[in-house]
Q: What sequence folds into this?
């Protein structure tokens, strides 16, 4: 009985070992593929972000304003900007200040 | 005989050998099983550990990224502003070279290259192939063309990795970022001071500067540089409480993408490297030192102030000849009285004034994130130097140090170090001045901008509670002073609870006869032409326009809206 149980345990361990080895290899491959995908996506993201940063820079936006909006966009002074609070369907207008205590 | 035989049999059966052999067999079988079991157990253990390792690998990679990454000559971390916008970015590119010695079929190679790059001059390429030396066929090629070239499978086509450092904001941050050389080594600015770090870390370095605010300040400064025909100018916008520099501009600047060797001294970083006499800006330090030592109060009266005094044979005069002879300490600062400041300076005494200036960081050097930092010239203290220093004459420092000192005076007396690299944790600073100094000096600085007598009325932009002090100084040269000016305005806003400091300095500005000033006192009064070449008529005007432009962004982006 003792011998039998030891043999069973060995067989079980062989089986488990094989399973673990295979799953490990599979996970390893998946990780590698994912890492490669992330690396390529990260590169694409960085390039797109660089393009976005360039196109959304103040210099470019002012250029676009001149080209497409002309007088549609106007400079606002701080006194013309208000904070609107909606408290129980009642609108409250507050002055925008540099420091809110 | 029978008895003898039976004895022999009994001995055979009791043979130790037989018994021991059987016992030994049992042991060997058991050990083998145990051994096999042990081997498999070890394998099982190894794979289990490996599996656990794989499970926890992601975390380990993240931790490792922060600490150690291999030093790569072709690598340099990106630099971003406080909002994550690229300021310096590294792009890897591939250059394609041709090794003529490895060409098998020249005709075939040329045809293939013509197909991919039809616009290239192939007579020139053929000539270079004939020479037999390696040469670069095309630099910075696209991924698509790289793939096409590699599919040719020609061993004479050799790709070489290259690194391009680009600065998408062009001139905007040139004095902060600096430049790198062709070997990927930083040679100025943050590229130099962070050289090792940039080559070793994988994450971007985040700065405290704001791209949009920097753009607006630079634009206004360029505008006023042209209006007043200045030789150069500088501006610093800083948070007075944590020392974070939101904008630092020095003009003229340069485009770091061009990789030009800058040898013209006019391209000096005027905000950090240029050492100047700032004139009346120092009067704030004199009053603050006296308030800190509890020698005076803002209401303390000084009577019988002459219009001129002589010290060591040199005259000290009032700029404003209509200034009253009896003034309070507050009025001395508002009306920028020279003789009154000298009196206060004399009351403080040389040692205490010297110690105050050192405490707020005016004298001596300053630790900063870039190496391009000027050191104030040695000042020989004495009776007369104390008198001149009390109104900012003869004593030199940098604009960055002026900004630091003003921040300490207005933020409640807390020591603050200007920084360009964003810190994850804000360290609580030591209190080095009496809290009363800020409380007493801020209303005075506000009056300089908001009252008729003040010298900075043109900066009284509605809604920002700007306070500040002007300084007009003649440029010194060896052995004397020229008529050329250094005009500075240091503004703090809002004075009810200071958050930002903006210092604007124009070097050698000129009068402009055509410029139209619009008064900000609600009178809608307009004045054509600059009446005087003082800070109040140029640097203050520039600062007012800057605050008007950047104010709404500061109010919305840098304040919590309930």
A:
């Amino acid at each position: 009985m003792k011998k039998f149980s030891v043999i069973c345990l060995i067989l079980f361990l062989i089986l488990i070992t094989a399973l673990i080895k295979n799953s490990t290899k599979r996970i390893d491959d998946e990780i590698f593929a994912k890492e490669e995908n992330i690396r390529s996506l990260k590169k694409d993201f960085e390039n797109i972000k660089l393009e976005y940063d360039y196109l959304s820079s103040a210099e470019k936006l002012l250029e676009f304003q001149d080209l497409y909006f002309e007088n549609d966009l106007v400079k606002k002074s701080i006194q013309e900007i208000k904070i609107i609070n909606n408290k129980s369907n009642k609108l409250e207008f507050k002055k925008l200040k540099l420091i809110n205590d | 005989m029978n008895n003898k035989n039976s004895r022999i049999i009994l001995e055979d059966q009791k043979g130790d050998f037989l018994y021991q052999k059987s016992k030994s067999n049992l042991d060997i079988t058991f050990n083998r099983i145990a051994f096999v079991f042990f081997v498999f157990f070890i394998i099982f253990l190894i794979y289990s550990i490996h599996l656990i390792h794989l499970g926890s690998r992601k975390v380990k990679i993240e931790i490792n990224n922060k600490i150690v990454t291999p030093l790569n000559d072709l690598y340099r971390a990106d630099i971003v502003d406080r909002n994550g916008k690229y300021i310096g970015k590294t792009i890897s590119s591939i250059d394609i070279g041709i090794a003529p010695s490895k060409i098998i079929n020249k005709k075939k190679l040329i045809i293939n290259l013509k197909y991919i790059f039809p616009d290239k001059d192939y007579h020139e390429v053929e000539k270079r192939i004939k020479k037999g030396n390696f040469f670069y066929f095309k630099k910075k090629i696209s991924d698509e063309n790289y793939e096409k070239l590699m599919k040719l499978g020609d061993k004479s086509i050799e790709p070489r990795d290259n690194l391009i450092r680009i600065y998408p904001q062009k001139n905007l941050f040139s004095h902060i970022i600096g430049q790198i050389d062709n070997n990927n080594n930083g040679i100025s600015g943050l590229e130099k001071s962070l050289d090792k770090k940039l080559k070793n870390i994988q994450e971007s370095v985040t700065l405290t500067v704001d791209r949009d605010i920097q753009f607006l300040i630079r634009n206004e400064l360029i505008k006023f540089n042209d209006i007043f025909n200045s030789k150069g100018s500088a501006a610093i916008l800083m948070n007075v409480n944590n020392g974070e520099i939101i904008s630092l501009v020095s003009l003229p600047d340069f485009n770091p993408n061009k990789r030009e060797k800058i040898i013209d001294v006019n391209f000096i970083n005027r905000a950090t490297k240029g050492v100047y006499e700032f004139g009346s800006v120092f009067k704030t330090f004199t009053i603050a030192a006296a308030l800190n030592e509890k020698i005076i109060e803002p209401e303390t009266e000084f009577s019988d102030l002459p219009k001129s005094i002589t010290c060591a044979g040199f005259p000290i005069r009032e700029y404003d000849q209509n200034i009253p002879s009896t003034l309070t300490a507050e009025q001395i600062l508002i009306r920028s009285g020279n003789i009154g400041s000298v009196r206060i300076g004399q009351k403080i005494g040389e040692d205490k004034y010297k110690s105050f200036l050192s405490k707020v960081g005016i004298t001596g050097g300053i630790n900063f994130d870039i190496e391009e930092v000027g050191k104030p010239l040695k000042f020989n203290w004495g009776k007369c130097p104390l008198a001149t220093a009390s109104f900012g004459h003869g004593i030199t420092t940098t604009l960055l140090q002026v900004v630091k000192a003003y921040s300490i005076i207005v933020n409640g007396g807390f020591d603050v170090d200007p920084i360009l690299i964003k810190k994850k944790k804000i360290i609580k600073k030591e209190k080095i001045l009496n809290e009363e100094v800020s409380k007493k000096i801020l209303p005075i600085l506000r009056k300089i901008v908001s009252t008729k007598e003040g010298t900075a009325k043109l900066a009284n932009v509605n809604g920002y509670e700007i306070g500040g002090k002007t300084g007009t100084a003649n440029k010194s040269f060896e052995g004397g002073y020229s008529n050329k000016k250094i005009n500075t305005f240091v503004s703090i806003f809002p004075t009810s609870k200071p958050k930002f400091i903006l210092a604007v300095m124009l070097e050698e500005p000129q009068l402009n006869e055509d410029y139209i000033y619009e008064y900000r006192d609600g009178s809608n009064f307009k004045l054509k032409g600059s009446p005087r070449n003082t800070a109040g008529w140029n640097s203050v005007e520039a600062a007012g326009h800057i605050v008007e432009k950047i104010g709404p962004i500061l109010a919305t982006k840098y304040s919590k809206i309930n």
